Every structure is written in C-alpha cells, then in structure tokens.
Amino acid sequence: MNHNSNNIEARLWEGYLSPEYARSGRNDFDRLMRNPDVDFHIAHTSGHASIDDPKQLAGSLSPAMVVPVHTSYRDAYSEMIGNVNVLQDGEELVLDD
Questions:
Q1: Neighbour tally for 89: CB within 10 Å
Q2: Domain shared by 36 and 54, yes or no
Q3: Nearest by Cα to 11 from 54, 50, 51
Q4: Number of domains the chain contains
Q5: How far is residue 84's CA from residue 76's CA, in Å, rounded to a whole number?
Q6: What is the predicted pLDDT for the residue at 70?
Q7: pLDDT digit string, tens, across residues 15-61
Q8: CA gap 88, 69 in Å, rounded
C-alpha cells in the first residue's frame, strides 16, 4: 500500500460497490475508485471489532482522519484515537479530490 495522503482503505461489504447499488445513488465509492490520484483499497471484514481493535489499527496506520461507522460507541473514539470525525446518522462527509 502506498502511504501517501490520498489513501483510502475501505472496510466494507463489497456489495456496496455493485452496479445495482451505484444506481441507487448511494455509492460515492465509484468516483473515488476511478480517481487516479487516490490509492483505494478494499478489505472485506466480518464480525465486529473489539473496543481496542480500532485504537490498534489507527496506531498502526496513523491516518489523517478516523470516521467511526457501524458502532454503538462512536463518541468513545474521540477519547481513545486522535483525528476523529464523529458523524451523526444521515450526516454527509465530503472528501475533496
């Protein structure tokens, strides 16, 4: 993986990248994946992480921003990881190209 500032590592179900999902208007990943300046990686995950796993991952990668998703403890991330952007349900995060 190229560790430049334009890395995106998406840990998601790959069905979100399907043409059917893209046509639903909910798939912004396609634009990012086609951008030659973005190093986009997909890592399928299953199950749920323990509360310490995200802290360990962030410590290993030193990301510019962490956006907790699919968690009941999103507010706890700010206490254990730096550079956290906590979004409320339905809130949009715009990533500049």
A1: 5
A2: no
A3: 54
A4: 2
A5: 10
A6: 75
A7: 777 777 766 665 666 777 777 887 877 776 666 677 788 888 888 88
A8: 10
